[in-house]
From TrEMBL, chain A:
Catalytic activity: L-glutamyl-tRNA(Gln) + L-glutamine + ATP + H2O = L-glutaminyl-tRNA(Gln) + L-glutamate + ADP + phosphate + H(+)
Keywords: ATP-binding, Ligase, Nucleotide-binding, Protein biosynthesis, Transferase
Source species: Fontimonas thermophila
Gene Ontology BP term (one): translation
Protein name, entry field: Glutamyl-tRNA(Gln) amidotransferase subunit A
Family under the similarity heading: Belongs to the amidase family. GatA subfamily.
From TrEMBL, chain B:
Gene Ontology terms describing biological process: glutaminyl-tRNAGln biosynthesis via transamidation; regulation of translational fidelity; translation
One GO MF term: ATP binding
Transmembrane stretches, start-end: none
The organism of origin for this protein: Fontimonas thermophila
SUPFAM superfamilies reported for this sequence: Glu-tRNAGln amidotransferase C subunit
Function: Allows the formation of correctly charged Asn-tRNA(Asn) or Gln-tRNA(Gln) through the transamidation of misacylated Asp-tRNA(Asn) or Glu-tRNA(Gln) in organisms which lack either or both of asparaginyl-tRNA or glutaminyl-tRNA synthetases. The reaction takes place in the presence of glutamine and ATP through an activated phospho-Asp-tRNA(Asn) or phospho-Glu-tRNA(Gln).
Keyword ATP-binding: yes
Assembly description: Heterotrimer of A, B and C subunits.
Name under which the protein is recorded: Aspartyl/glutamyl-tRNA(Asn/Gln) amidotransferase subunit C
From TrEMBL, chain C:
Domain Asn/Gln amidotransferase: 333-481
Species per Swiss-Prot/TrEMBL record: Fontimonas thermophila
Keywords assigned: ATP-binding, Ligase, Nucleotide-binding, Protein biosynthesis, Transferase
Complexes and interactors: Heterotrimer of A, B and C subunits.
Gene Ontology BP term (one): glutaminyl-tRNAGln biosynthesis via transamidation
Protein name: Aspartyl/glutamyl-tRNA(Asn/Gln) amidotransferase subunit B
UniProt cross-references to InterPro entries, sorted A to Z: Asn/Gln-tRNA_amidoTrfase_suB/E (IPR017959), Asn/Gln-tRNA_Trfase_suB/E_cat (IPR006075), Asn/Gln_amidotransferase (IPR018027), Asn/Gln_tRNA_amidoTrase-B-like (IPR003789), GatB (IPR004413), GatB_C_1 (IPR042114), GatB_Yqey_C_2 (IPR023168), Gln-tRNA_amidoTrfase_suB_CS (IPR017958)
EC number in record: 6.3.5.-
Catalytic activity: L-glutamyl-tRNA(Gln) + L-glutamine + ATP + H2O = L-glutaminyl-tRNA(Gln) + L-glutamate + ADP + phosphate + H(+); L-aspartyl-tRNA(Asn) + L-glutamine + ATP + H2O = L-asparaginyl-tRNA(Asn) + L-glutamate + ADP + phosphate + 2 H(+)
Record SMART domains: GatB_Yqey (SM00845)
A Pfam family that the UniProt record links to this protein: GatB_N
Length: 485, 95, 483
């Protein structure tokens, strides 16, 4: 059952080949069997899942519901789920039972009728590129248990890659959907900023955060993204604009599609084998009729430094609310208010979160604001302008998602700068707010390689269409790690 | 840019983070590395460039002035570390 | 004034926090009523729960624009919300959403009248929108503080004056004028006790003739007009004492203690603040276009100054009467209702409202909006004076009865039989009786004791239980005594 596409699953449910309950039980069993190896879930909500499945079966019996009714999904633990622990991968929220549902939780489960299997492990407060900063321990890559799955949505990708969930939500602030998707042979899409509501998604960096999906194909991703997207009056940055029909657009031919390859994305630092797989994919697109050209995003090399000012600045502010007063972790035996704050935050946050809070505090502090924060905002504008010019010439921008395949657990944990450079190709899309996705394009020594596509604002349908056409011509995305088949 | 331990402790105080001496030394080194990387920004020519705070050029939407929320104190305070008579309790604050 | 104003000059600027009269909070749909049980109005957004987001209340924005228009200020076409960071338990998110570099209102002014009758223009640097914090309750918990977040998220405008004020009296005059304005505009209930209108005073002193400002202190928590005056006076004297004894004033935040009338340095604000302002990424720039400003302008009520001028010209009132009657919008409305309903002389109406009604309400400690005598009731009484149904003197009794809740003027006049006697025959009869009963006084009067005329008037009024029309009594008595 776990090798079916979502479309096939929906057809199976409607044809009564299996019930939502059976489907859910199948995944719950797989989680029980396999998750000990990869640590992809923080919380498994079996009882709730079976209740939702029963409700879905009733709907299906009445021939009601939509294309996702009764289909299981795993939620990244960054999304608030009422009555269920929502930890954001942090000791700070280890005891936090969310008292409300995020908008996307409401949309996916209450409206679309999907079944929530549980909450996925993640880097603490989504800060990390290897899922090693989680309070709940690292997630292992199902393709090689000694390697990282990427981050911050490491639990989401590991669960889907190992077939413990057919699809999962994720979030992407600097590449947290695309980089782990690339390292685990999944298709992950981060839509345009403002396309999916941020209400109830625990904030890391508000002007960069965007929710999305990790799935086993562009088609699967299209179904789920369709259900997540749309205007939300509870989010001031949500865009009030109709959502394109993402599924209907998948089968359009891509003849004449203009694809640009930014030369900065193929410069020094890119592993030659990864480059080769990406260029092979470019060949496939050409065969499909796409028109390939080289372009330039001259400020792209400044993405990482820009991001490591903007994101920590916003994070230092967003995480100021965790003070041990109203919810969350509170240090024991504190005598003064200052001690309450400093020890609760010192003990409740892990080192990576503390580092970023300190960078952010520093770049916003008196005397440094102009040199760092304001400067970064201006460079952000330059990066954004690069894309504006690029999309005057091409429809999509194509490049590698990562410089290399998944690295070994622990390889970069004490070198933050090396870790940050993992996101060198993914960050620019967040800074500009454009949609971007990663899809499988081959393997190097048995480890997956990802290809990144970036589109113009609100061009999710075009991105998914191109990815789907590519996946019709290739079968990399159908490969599953041996140990989890 | 290189951080002194003292400066790290100042920043940690602003951010209300308790750091032990070893931690502070460790962070001082790492934050210096990070800021060195960030220092590349100085290279960019940003003369006359408008700072960008939001990815999309949109304006703030307004909410009608309507009460939509009801009292959920019990639910919310079940999450709190210390509550008394409906109040959140913290160590004595001296003004 | 306690200090030597010939040697020293005070330089004062006020920061006023004014709670806006919206139904819901500035960034969420929680209610804003005062006095609710602790934390029952603290919703997910107010509490700063993980994942929640702010959305701006349209009324709060509109009220800030109204204020800006009322002080002839610039309304920013584009304003930005910023986060102001500091840790304090009554500030749930660790930052306050406020405005920093681009406030909604800038460069306005307010004219105040000084004791000598001259007018002084006080600059208003800016007014910005922000959210209020919660309350810390320090009493009643052993070694602990309790936090109530009901007030957190209530919309505020912070109104910052230029340092144009030069004495405690000027500061109070400005504050009163500002208070009157925001209440008039209907954007604030002005309740200082409940904290709807709060003032912080920035005070410095310098020797007369100095052109540079001295070091200033900021005194917080001065929440009545009297306290503002006392706190500033205390602070001026304290600073003068320091300087005269060769010391230096320290720039600091101080707290006013209403029990002792003194100020003291706040311990919690000792360290230098670094608020790390930056544009709030959860909120977008707010744009208020010319059409929107025009729409809001059209909803503006008549402002106190304009109303005062109109009362003087339209009703022929003195400046004093007009000032009193326009001190509050509700009172001005009441007065205009009385004039309109009674159809009587505007000056007569003004006298009744100012002397009798306000006098009575003052005594009872009641507000015009809670007056037991409505405008229609007072108008009914004045109409009966105007049509001579009752005398002005009897009207006072009727008014007392109305205050006591005995009914309308007509009901009381009927019940007490107070209708004025205007029948000349009846009055003549009373006069004849009085003359017949007082032959000695009649003789004295005729012998030249003119003062006795009043005696006869009194006797006639007494004989008619005060109901005789006084003018008629006067005329007929004069005729009779002359004959």
């Amino acid at each position: 059952m776990h090798s079916l596409t979502l479309k096939e699953m929906a057809a199976g449910l409607r044809a009564r080949k299996f019930s939502a309950r059976e489907l859910t039980q199948h995944y719950l069993r797989r989680i029980e069997t396999f998750d000990g190896q990869i640590n992809s879930f923080i919380t498994v909500t079996a009882g709730q899942a079976l209740a939702q499945a029963a409700a879905a079966d009733e709907k299906l019996a009445r021939a009601e519901g939509g294309p996702l009714t009764g289909i299981p999904l795993a939620q990244k633990d960054i999304f608030c789920t009422q009555g269920v622990k929502t930890s954001c991968g942090s000791r700070m929220l280890d005891n936090f039972i969310a008292p409300y549902d995020a908008t996307i939780v409401r949309k996916l489960h209450h409206e679309a009728g999907m079944v929530m299997l549980g909450k996925c492990n993640m880097d603490e407060f989504a800060m990390g590129s290897s899922n090693e900063t989680s309070w709940y321990g690292p997630v292992k890559n199902p393709w090689d248990l000694t390697r990282v799955p990427g981050g911050s949505s490491g639990g989401s990708v590991a669960a889907v890659a190992a077939g413990l969930a057919p699809v999962a939500t994720a979030s992407d602030t600097g590449g947290s959907i695309r980089q782990p998707a690339a390292l685990t042979n999944l298709t992950g899409i981060k839509p345009t900023y403002g396309r999916v509501s941020r209400y109830g998604m625990i904030a890391f960096a508000s002007s960069l955060d965007q929710a999305g999906v990790v799935a086993r194909s562009a088609e699967d991703a299209a179904y789920v993204l369709q259900a997540m997207s749309g205007f939300d009056p509870l989010d001031s940055t949500s865009v009030d604009r109709p959502v394109d029909d993402l599924v209907a657009g998948l089968n359009r031919p891509i003849r004449g599609l203009r694809i640009g390859l930014p030369k900065e994305y193929f410069a020094a630092g890119l592993a030659p084998e990864v480059r080769a797989r990406v260029m092979a994919a470019v060949g496939v697109f050409e065969q499909l009729g796409a028109v390939i050209s080289e372009i330039s995003l001259p400020n792209a090399p400044l993405s990482v430094p820009t991001y490591y000012v903007v994101a920590p600045a916003e994070a230092s502010s967003n995480l100021a609310r965790y003070d041990g007063v109203r919810y969350g972790y509170r240090a024991q035996g504190v005598k003064t208010l200052e001690e309450l704050y400093k020890r609760s935050r010192g003990e409740g946050f892990g080192p990576e979160v503390q580092r970023r809070i300190m960078i952010g505090t520093y770049v916003l502090s008196h005397g440094y604001y102009d040199a760092y924060y304001l400067k970064a905002q201006k460079v952000r504008k330059l990066i954004c302008e690069d894309f504006r010019r690029a999309f005057e010439q091409v429809d999509l921008v194509l490049g590698p998602t990562t410089t290399d395949v998944a690295f070994k657990l622990g390889a970069k944990t004490d070198d933050p700068v090396a870790m940050y450079l993992n996101d060198i190709y993914t960050i620019a899309a967040n800074l500009a707010g454009i949609p971007a996705m990663s899809l499988p394009c081959g393997f190097v020594d048995g480890l997956p390689v990802g290809l990144q596509l970036m589109g113009n604002y609100f061009d999710e349908a075009r991105l998914l269409n191109a990815a789907h056409q590519y996946q019709q011509a290739t079968d990399f995305h159908k490969q599953m790690p041996q140990a989890f088949r | 840019m290189s951080f002194s331990i003292e400066h790290i402790q100042q920043v940690a105080h602003l951010a209300r983070l308790a750091l032990g001496p070893e931690q502070a030394a460790h962070y001082a080194r790492q934050l210096s590395d990070i800021l060195e990387m960030v220092g590349q920004l100085a290279r960019a020519d940003t003369q006359g460039v408008e700072p960008m705070a939001h990815p999309l050029e949109m304006h703030q939407r307004l909410r009608p002035d309507v009460v939509t929320e009801t009292d959920r104190r019990e639910v919310f305070q079940a999450l709190a570390p210390a509550v008394e008579n409906g109040l959140y309790i913290v160590p004595k604050v001296i003004e | 004034m306690a200090y030597d104003a010939s040697a020293w000059e005070a330089v004062i600027g006020l920061e006023v926090h004014c709670q806006l009269l919206t139904r819901s909070k500035i960034f969420s749909g929680a209610p804003t009523q005062y006095g609710a049980a602790p934390n029952t109005q603290a919703d997910a957004v107010t509490l700063g729960l993980p994942g929640v987001l702010p959305v701006l209340n349209a009324s709060a924005l509109e009220m800030a624009v109204k204020f800006g228009l009322a002080i002839q200020a610039q309304i920013a076409e584009r304003c930005v919300f910023a986060r102001k960071h500091y840790f304090y338990p009554d500030l749930p998110k660790g930052y306050q959403i406020s405005q920093y570099e681009q406030p909604i209102v800038a460069k306005g002014h307010l004219d105040i009248e000084l004791a000598d009758g001259s007018v002084k223009r006080i600059g208003i640097t800016r007014a910005h929108l922000e959210e209020d914090a919660g309350k810390s309750l320090h009493e009643g918990f052993a070694g602990a503080t309790g936090i109530d977040l009901n007030r957190a998220g209530t919309p505020l405008i912070e109104i910052v004056s230029e340092p144009d004020l030069r004495s405690p009296a000027e500061a109070v005059a400005y504050l009163k004028k500002l208070h009157q304005l925001v209440v008039y505009l209907g954007i604030c209930d002005g309740n200082m006790q409940e904290g709807s209108f709060r003032c912080d005073a920035n005070v410095s002193v310098r020797r007369r003739g100095d052109t540079r400002f001295g070091t200033r202190t900021e005194t917080k928590n001065v929440n009545s007009f009297r306290f503002v005056e006392k706190a500033i006076e205390y602070e001026i004297q304290r600073q003068i004492d320091i300087l005269e004894s060769g010391g230096r004033v320290v720039q600091e935040t101080r707290l006013f203690n209403p029990d002792t009338g003194e100020t003291r340095a706040m311990r919690s604000k000792e360290e230098a603040m670094d608020y790390r302002y930056f544009p709030d990424p959860d909120l977008l720039p707010v744009v208020v276009g010319p059409a929107e400003i025009d729409r809001i302008r059209a909803t503006m009520p008549e402002l106190p100054e304009a109303k005062k001028q109109r009362f003087m010209t339209q009703y022929g009132l003195s400046k004093y009467d007009a000032t009193v009657l326009t001190s509050e919008a509700a009172l001005a409305d009441y007065y205009e209702d009385v004039v309109r309903i009674s159809g009587a002389d505007a000056k007569l109406c003004a006298n009744w409202v100012i002397t009798d009604l306000l006098g009575a309400l003052n005594k009872r400690g009641e507000d015009i909006t809670a007056s037991p005598v409505t405008a229609a009731m007072l108008a009914g009484l004045i109409a009966r004076i105007a049509d001579q149904t009752i005398s002005g003197k009897l009207a006072k009794d009727v008014f007392e009865a109305m205050l006591a809740g005995e009914g309308t003027a007509d009901e009381i006049i009927k019940a007490k039989g107070l209708v004025q006697i205007t029948d000349e025959g009846a009055i003549r009869k009373a006069i004849e009786d009085v003359i017949a009963q007082n032959p000695r006084q009649l003789a004295d009067y005729r012998a030249g004791k003119d003062k006795l005329f009043g005696f006869f008037v009194g006797q006639v009024m007494k004989a008619t239980q005060g109901k005789a029309n006084p003018e008629l009594v006067n005329r007929l008595l004069k005729d009779r005594l002359a004959s």
